[in-house]
Amino acid sequence: MKWDSNVYDDKHSFVAEYGKAMLDLVNRAQGQKILDLGCGTGVLTNELAKQGATVIGTDLSPDMIKTAQSNYPHLRFQVADATQLPFDNEFDTVFSNAVFHWIPNQKQLLHSIQRALKANGMLVCEFGAKNNIAQIQTAFEQVTGKRGYCYTSPFFFPAEAEYRLLLEQAGFAVMHCIEYDRPTPLADGEKGLHNWLCQFFVGDLQTFSEEEKSEILRETAELCRSSIWKSQQWVADYRRIQVVAVKKP
Ligand SMILES: C[S@@+](CC[C@H](N)C(=O)[O-])C[C@H]1O[C@@H](n2cnc3c(N)ncnc32)[C@H](O)[C@@H]1O
Question: Dihedral of CA 50/55/61/67: which sign?
């Protein structure tokens, strides 16, 4: 997916805001070296640096990295694919918020993180769990399906037991792995779901004409209304998985 860093900061800043809760899971001991994996526009990279760590932010999107670098010129950012990190035995912690569900090849991802971590280094991450955005995806699938389109979810949303197993197979000792509902209010009132769909389903929507796209957005919202429109705002049916795991020596 192509990310637009300006839209992301303007309409989706809630992603990093929720990620701040994870900062408490990170070791704050002096001299920590941390990789913020899939750092986006660098909000959490900056928070980690404020806690006293030496931090590098990496992201696959050159646009995100350009904005992160201009927002925080004193920090180091670089473009890198999380599944092929150019680091060996370098970090005390790999931190990542709202990224893993975008990456289909989880074995390669965890292998790449293993290599980047020092022995006993920690992985602290949170991303979408099984049934995340189920209402929104089901409505979108139904509405686009009526027009002959076959929506297939691009996301990896695992259950806790499935992910625990993957972590163990990749050589991590799992310290903490939970799934939880995190109903997420979307900014901008009535337009909130429209903005969200345009950002996160951009690839699917671009296969339709402008007229069809408007209809799809309107019909998807109508189908979702009874379940996720709550007193003047959309509240997306987010479900997260949160992980702390240690690289076995
Ligand atoms: C929802 S944003 C989260 C950004 C940031 N962590 C935050 O909390 O605001 C997801 C980010 O994952 C990045 N991403 C997706 N696939 C990636 C990959 N294979 N390697 C590195 N970054 C990736 C995207 O470019 C995007 O910046």
Answer: positive
109 CB under 6 A from ligand 1? no
> Distance from the CA of 200 to the center of ligand 1, in angstroms?
12
Domains of the chain and CATH, by start: 5-131+155-187+237-247 (3.40.50.150)
Question: Who contacts 91 (Cβ-Cβ below 8 Å, separation ≥6)?
Answer: 33, 34, 35, 116, 117, 118, 121
Distance 3 CA to ligand 1 centre (A): 9
Q: pLDDT, tens digit, for every residue of 115-159?
A: 999 999 999 999 999 999 999 999 999 999 999 999 999 999 999
Evaluate if residue 53 carries a pLDDT over 90. Answer: yes
Distance CA 221, CA 233 (A): 12
